[in-house]
Each structure stands twice: as C-alpha cells, then as structure tokens.
Task: structure prediction
Amino acid sequence: MAEDWLAEESEDPAGDGAGELRSVQVGADQHAARLDRALAELVPEFSRSYLQQLLAQGLVHLNGQPATKASARVKAGDQLVLEMRPTLQSQAFRPEPMGIDVVYEDAHLLVVNKPAGLVVHPAPGNWSGTLLNGLLARDEKALTVPRAGIVHRLDKDTSGLMVVARDRATMDALVALIAERKVQRQYVALAHGAWAGPPTRMVDAPIGRDPRNRLRMAVVDLAVHAGKPARTDIRWLAGGPEGCWVQCTLHTGRTHQIRVHMASLRHPLVADALYGGRPVGALQRQALHAYRLAFAHPVTGQALEFRAEVPDDMRQALALWGLGYNAP
Result:
C-alpha cells in the first residue's frame, strides 16, 4: 500500500509572503486555557499546526510580550497579536531549478531516477532543495497537482526509480495501483553477513515504530504495539563471507521496510547506521537502490517497465568484497 507520509498542504495567509498582523482578545470561554488551544479557537481559519509554528518563530505576542510556550495559560481579557507570516513549511513549496534524471515522460506521468542524498519531499530539516521543489520548477503542470504529483517515496539515501503523476486523475489512478499492489517495485541491496539457508525468503512481518527508539522502525507484535502488515520477498544474488548481494521485491510500502526486514534477518544494509550497518569503502549511505519499476500505464493501459543502473558507490563496494556486479 502507499506509505502514510504525505504532508498537509502548506498555509500562506498573506498569499504573497508578506506579514499581516491579527489582534484578538481572549474571552471568557478561553480563560485558563493553553495558549495554543486558545489560538485555535480564536483564529479557527488556520490549523493548529500553523499556529504552533508561529509560536515557535516568536510571531505571537501576549499583552505586548513575545509568547513562545504553547502550554502557557491565558486569562480572559488578555490581548494576543499574531504576525501572520509564512512559515518555513509554507515557503517550502516553491520551484527550485535542479537537474532531474528523467528516464520516461509523457502527457500523464514521468519516471525519474533519484540520486542518493536527494530528499523527496519538504520536511523539518529539509525545507528546500527537494525533488518536489525541482519538479515544481521543471513542469508548470506540477503546480496544479498535490505534492507535485509524488505518489510514493524513497528515503533520502536510497537511489533509484520513482513514478510521478502530471495530473490529478493520473495521480489518483497511480495511488490506486499502488494500493492494489499492481506496481512492481524491486530493489538491489548490499548487506552484511554471509547468506545462509534457501536462496529466496519471504519476510511477512509487521512494521511499526520501535518502542525502544522512536527514531527507528522495527518488526513488532501487533497484539502489543501499533504497526502495519509488511511483506518483502528477498532473493540471494551473490555473496561471500563478508556479506551478500540481494534482490528485494516490495509487496507493501512501509517506512524503512527493506532496511527493517533485512536487519531482522541479521543482514543490516551496508552503511545503514540506523539499523546496524557499517560503511564499506566509499559507500557511506545505505546500500539500497530501486533498480526496477513496472506497471500498466493508468491511462493507456500499456505495460511499462524501467530499469536503473546500480550507482558507482555500490559497484565499488561490491568489488571490494570480490562480488562483482550480478544483475538480477
């Protein structure tokens, strides 16, 4: 299924980036309420998330003094002044010209080969320089489609193929195809540890937030922890005493799915520090590449299949382990 990662639309109340002052008075209904809750009631046309961002940026004044603590209590009669300035999030959805490796394009969609290191969608810490920003600059049609037509993502340090819609109808159709598991997404990965057992494995293990480390995902027991079903098919391609070269086929699209499932087999990906991997040679990012993407065109019905060459950093790491490159 499609991952639950898509961000809310941004808010820019002034429309052109200019600030606007809004003055409101705390009423009896908001007396003794938290500041963020009072703001949500007094200016309901804006989301609580947006108002919290204004608080964090020092753009809310309480009785003439900057107020930054959302938990502060207010009293009836207090005067609040908000500077309705665009937040970092609202300014993130801006065109930024960049080179994008487009491997296929028609009137309805395009397929791109994302390099490692490129963030797909603006988020805290990466409000600019993302693939979304580049798509907005490349194609004026992207401005009319939610999230510039992005329907699935790759992690920042994962390279490879992604499909992007160029209109809303195609976007909705692609999301449906992903949900119905009719988009084939295959990866190659280099992992630590000598492979043992059968050459193919099917990992059917739910994934949720790691209860011991909220920055990670983990295989979880759904009877105890929140999570979602996840399935990855793994095929051994080559290997030696130090590690293994594998093909991974996704049947679901959970956050960090391949990384988590490989780590659960005690084969963490090379250079994936979050899940126990270590660098090999110049390979300093997780050794994961989306090499194949196949689906029926949502408009024409034509069968489409695309492949992307394995990047040099992964090839060099393979050579250091004496594995060479074995294409699936």
